[in-house]
Every structure is written in C-alpha cells, then in structure tokens.
What we know:
heterodimer, A: about 475 residues, alpha/beta, B: about 950 residues, alpha+beta, 6-stranded antiparallel beta sheet, 34 helices, globular
Amino acid sequence: MNAITRRHFFGRSATGLGAAALWSLAGGTARAKGGLTGLPHFAPRAKRVIYLFQSGGPSQMETFDYKPRLKDFQGTDLPESIRQGQRLTQMSSAQASFPVVPSKFAFAQHGQSGAWVSELMPYTAKVADDLTFVKSTYTDAINHDPAVTFLQTGSQIAGRPSMGSWVVYGLGSETEDLPAFVVMISPGAGGTGQPLYDRLWGAGFLPSRYQGVKFRSVGDPVLYLSNPEGFGGAERRDYLDALAKLNQGTMDEFGDPEISTRIAQYEMAFRMQSSVPDLVDFSKETAATIDSYGPDARKPGTYAYNCLLARRLAERGVRFIQLYHRDWDHHGGLPKALPKLCRQTDQPTAALIADLKQRGMLDDTLVVWGGEFGRTVYCQGRLTADDYGRDHHPRCFTVWMAGGGIRPGITLGKTDDYCYNITERPVHVYDLQATILNCLGIDHTRLTFLFKGRHFRLTDVGGNAVKEILRA
Amino acid sequence: MLWGGWIWAAASAPVEFNRDVRPILSDRCYTCHGPDRASRQSPLRLDQEQSAHPALAHILERITSTDTGFRMPPAYMGRERLTDAEIDVLRRWIEQGGKYEPHWSLIPPKKAALPAVREPSWPRNPVDAFVLARLEHEGTAHAPDADPSTLVRRLSFDLTGLPPTPAETQAFLADRSPDAYEKLVDRLLASPRYGERMAIRWLEAARYADTNGYSNDGPRDMWRWRDWVIGAFNRNMPFDRFTVEQIAGDLLPDATVSQRVATAFNRNHRTSAEGGIVDEEFRLGYVGDRVETTSTVWLGTTIGCARCHDHKYDPYTQKEYYQLSAFFNNTPDRGFVYNFGNEPPYIHAPLPEQQAKLDALDAKIAAARQRLDSLEPAVDHAYAAWTPPAEWNVREGLVTGTPQLEYKDPFTFAARITPKSPKGAILSIGEDYFEGKGHYLLLIDGKLRLHVTFRYSDLSLRVETADALPPGKTQHVLVTYDGGMRAKGVHMYVDGRDMPLKVLFDYGIWPIENKEPLRIGAGAGLRWDGAIDDVRIYKRALSPREAALVAMTDAAARARTRDAFLDLAPPHEYLAARAALHELERDRAGLMASIPTVMVMEELPHPRDTFVLKRGAYDAPGDKVEPRTPAVLPPFQPGWPANRLGLARWLVDRGNPLTARVTVNRFWQMLWGVGLVKTVEDFGSQGEWPAHQELLDWLAVEFMDSGWDVKHIMKTMVMSAAYRQASRETPQSLEKDPENRLLARGARFRLPAEMIRDQALAVSGLLVERAGGPSVKPYQPPGLWQELFGGKGYVADHGDGLYRRSIYTYWRRTVAPPAMMSFDSPSREVCVVREERTNTPLQALNLMNDTVYLEASRKLAERMVKGGGIESGVRLVLGRDPRPAERTVLTAALEKFRARYRAHPGDAAKYLTQGESPRDPSIQPAELASWTAVASLLLNMDEAVTRQ
C-alpha cells in the first residue's frame, strides 16, 4: 500500500467511513484497533465482557432470592396491596386467582459473604464469594421479545445497536484474527426455548461491521469459513496471491482506497480460516480443565462447551462474548424443568469463574449472569401438590456480576417478602447497562451515535452506574 | 461550508444561517434552547428569531468561557466545548447581524436560473450547469468521460441491476451514432429488469418481508404487493399516483384490486404473535411504524422522534405526531396477530390467469343458479304430490362418534336441553377443566357459551349469548362456527332464533391438537344438572334456516318440510342441477384457496379515537386529537378528506416542499452511492445541508413538472456529463474531496448485495429470469434456522428457485439471508433508506465459499472452456478485455491449479460437486476444476463487485 492510500484508509476509518475498523490491518503496534478517540473515558477495570444470558427469565425465587415467608403465604391469593394493580401478561391476566407458591427447593448461605444460593446451584454456591448479586434488578418489558431486546439494546423496539456492538464501536478490537463481538447459543433442556434473533446482536444503525458474529454449533463456526472440499489451504494461498495482484492492478488504475482495504480483508479472511479452527481445538486443554466444565464440555453447541470457548475467546482478546442459554421460560411444570436448566448451566458457569480466576483473567474480565426478567410469585396455570408454573415478572429479578470492575461478595438490593416489589436499591436495566460500560471505562452518557438527527446511546435517556458494587 | 463536520468556508465569507449556523445550534444547543417545550431549560430559544432576548448578547461569552460551570453547552450535561471553527462561525453570524431563516427544506423548491460556466461545451443538460459552476468556483476540474465499456456496465447495473452481456457491450462500442448513449439508456429503461432494480430499494424502505418479524416470526404473504411495485416501476406509473395508491388506494372511488393491493405498503410492518403481549400496545406500535415509515419515505423527516415528547430539533410537537398518526389509526387490524399466515384485513389478489378462471367460473355459477331457479315450479309440483316419511332431520355433514375438530374447522353443535342449574357443560371435546384445551358448549350464569381454546389466557375464542336462557325450560340450543378464526363467525340459536351475542375473547388463532373424547353433560370441570337430548354435531356451519329446522319440536312437521322433500326425493332434473351447482361452487372454493392473499389497509366505518399518548405509552392517553398534518408544512386543503386519501393528496401536492426533493435525492443516491443530501432519511435540522441545493431543487421541480415521471428523472440524471465521468481517483482528489461531494469524478462504489449475487448468476448462465411471483428459497448454510427456531428449518428449493434474482429471495426477518446482510442489506425490520457499504472479511469468505458463487464459478468455467478462455471470462464479468498483466496473472494461476488438480483428480471431482446444476461431462474434471478456480478469482475481484 502506498503512503497516501494508507493514510487515507486510517483517516476514513477514524470518521467511520472506511472499512476494516473491527478487523484491523496493521501489524500490532497499537493494541486496540478501530475504537473511538477519547475512549475509554477513564481507566477501565475490565477489558472484556462475558455475558451469560439466561434466556426465558429464570425464576429468582428458586435460584438466588431466598423468600422463607412464602411458606406461610402458600396457596393464599396475592394481596392487592402487593400487586397494586400492576399489569400482567395477557397469559395470566384472565386468571381467576393468583395463589402464592413458595420455592420447592431449599436454600443455604455460602462462603464468607453468606450469599443465599438454592440447592439447585451447588457449583455456583462454591464460587459465591467471587460474585456480586443484584437482587433488585427490574425492567420495563413484560414479554420475551421486547424484554430481551430491551436488555440487549436499551429499547424494547428492535432496531438499535446491541450492547456488544456499542462496546466494540467505542473500544475497538484487541484481536486481529477474530471478530471482536462473538455470540454463542445453546438450547435448553426441553428443546430450543424462546426464539432468539440475529437483531439481538445486530449493529442497528451503527455500521454493520460492529454486529456480533454468531458462532454456530452446526457447520462452520463462522459462516462460509471453510474452503470447499477439494480446495485446500495451499490452493487458497495461491488463489489469494493471484487475487491480490489482480486487485492491485485495479488499485493502480483507479486509486480507490477501498480496493486496498478489500485486499487486506481477504488476507484477514485467510487468517480467520486458521485462527477459528485453532480456537475450537480443545486438544491443548488439560482433561482436568475440560472436566471442570462438566460432562457436556466436549459437546459442541452445549452451554458447557460455550463457556469453555468463552474463556478461549477471552484469552484471544475478543471484546464482547455473549452466550445465550435458552428455555428458562417456566410457565408450567417448573419443579421438573428448572432443575434440568440448573444442571446444564450451574457447573459450567462456576467453572468459568474459577478458570478465569486461576489464570488471572477474572481481574479484567467482567462476567454477567441473568435473564430478561424474573417470574411471578403466584402460580400460573394449575397449581397441584407437586406442580406449578410462574408467569413473567418484570418488577424484580436477580442478576449477578463478577470480575473486572466489580467488588466481589456483595448482595445489593432487596425485594419484599412476596418477592414481588423491590424494597431497597432498585437497579433498572439502564443502570445495569451503565454499570457494565463503566467497568469498561465508558461513561454511558458519552458513548453516542448520531442517527436520524439524534445522538443515540445504549441507555437512551436513563441509567446510572451502580457505584456501590464498583471497585474503586 | 459545513459538510458532516468539515468546515470549509473562508474566514471572511458571509455565513448563511441554514447552511452554516443551524447545524451547530441544532446539534449543540436545541436540546435546551430548541423546539421541545418540555426539555427547554431557558426562555432563550435559538431555533427562531428572538433578537430582543438579552441573553443573546452573551452567547459568545458563554460558549468561549473556560469556566466549565459557566460554559455552554454545559459540562455537567456531558457536553463538549464547541470547536474553534464552530465558535468562529457563530461569532461571524452574530457580527453579521444574527439573522435567522426558516429551515431550507421547508421552503418550496424553485428552479434557479442556470449558472453561467466558463466551459460551456461540457454541460449536456442542466444538471451539469450546476455541477460545473460549482467546480469552477472551487477551482476543481471535472473528470473526462469514462470508457464506453465502463459506461455500459455502469448504466446496466444502475438501471437494471445486472451486467451487460459481452454482445451488448460490443453493440454499444460499435454504435457510432451520436445518440448511441441515449439509445442505450432508453433500452435499459424499457427493460423489465428496470422495475426489479428500482423495486428492491423501495422494498427496503417499505420494510417488506415474508415473515411477521417478532417472536416466532411466522410467515405472511405479501408478494403480490412486490409484484405491484415492480409492475408500477416498469409501467412508469407517475410517482404521485404511485404514492396515492400505496397510501390510500382503498379509498379511491371504485378502488380496483390492484389499488387495494398497493395499500399493503402500510401493512408491511412487523407484527407480533407472541403469547401474552398486550394487544393495544402492539397495535399502536404498528400505527407508529406507519407514521415513521411514511414520514421517512416521503417527507425525509424524523417526526417519529415526537412520539414521546416534542421534537428536539425540528418544529414538530408531540401533538402533531399523534395528529399524523390518526390517519393510520383506523384500520381494523390487531396487535396480537395470527402466526401462520395473513392477518385480516387481507384480500385475494388473483394473478391474471387466476382472475380469468374466476370470471369464467362465476359466469358458470350464475348460469347454474339460474337453471336451479328455473326448476322451482317443477319442484313445487312434485312436492305437492309427495308423501312425507314419519321422521327426517338435516343430514349433510352430521358426525357420528367423536369428531376431530381443529381451530379452522367449521362446526355446528346442537342439543335440546332442560337446565336445572345456570352452570354446566352441555358437551365438550377437550380437557376436563375450565381453562382446558378444546371445544366446549357450556351454560354459564344461564348464558349459552362457546369456548374454543388452545390456551385460555390468550389463544382462545369465547362467545356467549347476551341474555340468560330461561331456567328449567326445555329448549333447543344450536351453535355454528364458520372456521374463520373470528368470533364474528359464531352464531347461536335458541329454539331456532338467532341470538344477540357477546364476544368475550377473540383469539381462536392457534392449533389445538386434541385427543380428548366427546363428553356429553361434562367437560371444562363442569357437570350438567338437568336433561340433555338430541345432541347433534355437524362438521359444517348450518344455515339459519337449517338451524330452525333442527330446532323444530314436531318431528313429523319437520319431515313434511320442503327441505325434507328436497333432501329425500328431489326431482331428477333438480338433483342434477343442484349437483352441478355444488360442483362449480367447490371448484370455486378450491380456486380461491389457491389464490394468493395480501394484507391491505381498510378504514373502519367509525374512526377510532386517537389520543396523545403521554411518554408514548399506550396506556397513558392524554388529549384526543383529529387527523391533521404538521403546522409548519403547507396547509391541508379543505377539499381533501380527513383520511389517508387526503394525506396522500397532501404528500404529493405541488406546495409540499419535501416529497419531490426527498424522492429525487434517493434516486440520486442509487446512481452516486450517496445522496445530494447525504442524510437521505433526515432533511431536518440535524440532517446534512445539501451539497448542491440548487441542483437538488432543480431536479425536484423538474420531477414535478414532468408529472412525477420517474423514468424521465432517472434519464435526466444518467444523461448528464457529470454522471458519465470516469471514476479514477488521484491523491489530490482524495485529499481535497474524499467523498466526491463536488461530483468532480464519476462515482465508484461496491455493488449492493443483490447485484453481487445476481451478477454471478447472470454471467454463469444460471440466472432464471421471471418477473414476479412468490418468494423462492435459494441455497443457505445448513442449520440456519434450526439454531434459532428448532423445527425442520430452512429447506432450499430445487431447480429454478435457486437461480432467481435476489429480490425474490425469501426474507425471514429474524434470520435474514446472511449473505445479503453481510453485504449491508437492511434487515427489513424497519424502514431504511440510507445505502450503506462496508468492507469486511466476512464478505470475502462469502464470495469465496458460498455454494452459489462456487456453482456460478463452475458454470462460468464451462463457458470459458467452451470458448474464449480467460478473455471471455473477463469480458463476461468485467465487461472489458483483460489487461496484459491480468492475462499473465490469470494464466499463471490456471497453470498452478492445473498442475495441482492433474496430480489430485479426486480433489478436482470434489471441488466440482458444489451446487445442483449438472456438470458438463465433456470437460475433464481436472481441467474444469482449474478453470473453476480461475472463474472464482474473477468473481472475487474488487472490480467485479464494484460499479465504477
């Protein structure tokens, strides 16, 4: 590349007009590539995020929010003084009664912090001192699609950039061989669960290069990654050499810097063709490490496999790693279904925390666990001796955070005895988002993008970072 | 001059409020000093003349202050200090008198006098006069004309979306006539491909897709509207009519099917079938989407911002937003929609051949009816002579045993009951608890009630009689349902009388899959107290007349009826005529079932009330509003109806300053990659000042003067010398004007996603050209849908469906075609009008490894082997002869691949398995594989995916 072109390329990138900001070109002088100037706004405590999204809305009453008094209220109708006319989904608003149902599962306190954890989460209980529980998270949305979209993009209406896209747009990438924002999905115990959509990791109105790249569990981990059968790496190398010469000829004639960028992108594609297979090759992991993630860790597409892959992605400098585990939507049959979901996720989640910690990576990796909303204290559908279900509940749910930027071992916020309303330190979704950005050294009010005449941001017009749980 | 943040104006030049000052004030100050009353923090307004305000004198002091507590914009709001250049503009503006102007885009466009130029030989039409005058003013030279071969390829993509064939290129190069270029333009504009090329951008603006978009993302059928759009562009429907028919075709006098199909524009928005959603919340969301889309597409305004509060930058109040939304709030559609197809209102939109069959059948049916009627006297005669039997009842469709009923099956339940209690189950085929799944005929509070339930809470149909039945009395009850998934298809009869009904819940829109037995006197957790007799179930909805017959208590009297006679002993001729009519009616029903439907706009007979919604929340209505257009725009004529038709007339009224400008600007973007106003979606305060306002205005007025003639305005643009310039860039041109906003050279930009694929199909000979029709499913990576939705996932077509133009590719919004997405297609979730282009490694992987490109490479290779070799490949793909250096590189590559595949014939065979089309057996596999790799190189060249 000649000097003018090169300068031009980076000039365009900086104004968001050029191409490969995410997939950097030059060889490793500066660390982060393609971020905005002026970011991070202040010293970051986390360099990357692993978001363990529990899609469908796990019940807080069966997992982390211990409510002993519910036994006393069992079967009684939820008092109007608690419900306060709050809206319900159309699924249970037609219900004649709202009988309170306590958790079938026992709780105990764990670690120095004395965090309450359900018997369904024995592995998580062991790492409880590394976690900080926010029991007073709440959201505006009451159904899956709007609620997941709200958590991921700051708006219930799809179309805005996802959290990962914002982060990569602001901070750029720390890897040259992998996408900066990777998404992985695992099915729940009862099949796939609630639908998820490409737009949840979409770039919205940000340039499309900031969108998350979904690593697939079928076929190529990255779409179109593999060369066709009968066309190997050596052929591809010859091919790319010839292509670069052809394109350079066009460059010499037309002088369009996009041509140089395209030559570079083909090289990047070639690098990905080897870096991705290396990423998913677990042969250099010790058996002990793999086993710590549980029996599913060798099965591609499982939550356990994705947790281990998340650690490997983090090691390689991927900025935002988003896992989705599905099927937490227990409208009925909760006592049978929920333990299965916990079995699928508990051990891998705890192993990820321990593995990151042991490698010294937990200090600069922020891990977040949670769903899009909580569940109702009253039973949805038929309440029988050993069966119940719970509807969506936006007014309180538990999210835990760990690692970079978070003070460990805290339990923040409280809900009432019915686990219906927040009684102490409400944390809105915007506050959660602001907190995550804060850990990365981003002031959420200053990471903005001008679109249709407005400076948009992840937290719209709300949000305050939760200072109590942030490390100084 | 302020362009996207670059300040070019010389220090002494006079500032213009609209061009130089407003963008700064809008972006930096209007949040607190602008049009939004609620967020205005100070009586000082900077969006309008307020010169007497004392604070104005202190502006400079405030914006230049180093005291962050005193400085504007305030640091405590997270705002940065103005740049020195911005401060300088404001300083000069104040020095020059601080004059305000209304925003430029609100002043109707006028044709300015053509500017004088120093090089009068260059301009070919008025477009060039504006371009050249500006270039001369800036001291920049225009570029020479592009090579003819470059021009023909550029034009072919721009006007038809496909490359020229080598023969077409040759013909143009050989044509020495002075109007050769114009003839080429006319030929391309007349091509049916033109409509497809123009339509795809319109589809993106209209957020067209084949699925609903939320949650399970079920299918819908809107492709007849796509056919309509393609046809309208090809027939060159004037843009004003194109507008009126899409906004309000249904309200035109004697609206045709085609005009009603056009209104699907405003039904293309996403809809939700997610259980548990609040219907009204989503319905109002759809109304909001229509406002947003309509205002973006026609007005280039972001009035959608005023949904929750007054607009922060432009002069639109929240009330005006809701007044505009009132135009779209009158459709009888719902928020919670059907998940397996079109949601009412929809119409049948027959294809021409289907319409012909329908007309023929209707004529035959009319004749058959006439024939049947003509036999009435003979029937009367025979009936009079007939000896009735002792007993008879309506037989057709009667079910014996447990019927299998689904939510779309029509049925009739009937029984003679003597209730002793006001609550009980008459019959049921469903789970035995009140909210259970299934079909139930109940008595609740003495009222006759029907439940058809999948999930009681949200997917259920529940209807009851308005009044209670008299207790203790023996009476006949009969309920019919037409299978139409709506409560209006339910009738209830008591002793043969059609009863007034009350609809309790109207969402019988989900399959039931019931294996429960038929229970009489039980079900829904209820039991019957009293007597039940003569239970009858029909698998069709009986007519009112039949309902009355079944209800008759005197069996002998029923057996004497004319109905009984016609059922048991009709005259032979009558029987034959009735059978003939029924057969025709069955044929017609069959035909109707095969006719595509499309969701359309309709007006409710009584308009819904529209309210200002506080903070935009569906459950926080404020003042009631009437349909009205924003005050800052020209008035709504008194002669126009206050509905969508009036709105459409207003949009294309000569006095509307926006529609023509916004529209020609989008056309310009199609030809130059970027609009004259780069923010094609926003002509407001936060939008970009036009790079060439006089040119934009000239084009807008010319467009209207021509009768909104789209082909004329497209032709005007491409006939210009500016358009024909070569697109070579130099370090100097890149340095001075990297985005080519001065138009000193031709535009060079990557092809849109659909053209990249369509080109590969075309040059390989795979393309199957057929205008219109349902969407097709070309190759997609395995597992594309399963991972997100489970089920059997995406099943690709075989044969032609693999090779149609990309505008016909099935578009599932939540898993949009990945290759289209990686080449920057909008996701079709919301209206998008800005064309974006990125350059990523995922694109490289796609072009190198996607089945469609590998197959196209193989077929292109066959063409090259069969004749012309490298030369013909380059001509097919790039539309020109290869350069010597290219010939060398490609030949060397070919030799390398040859050596490789001759040594490894097994790899060659594997490499050639991509795609469904057969391989030419006359070519040696190793040879074809080597050429396939070379063909793939051609398709991956930067020049191949670029129009230049």
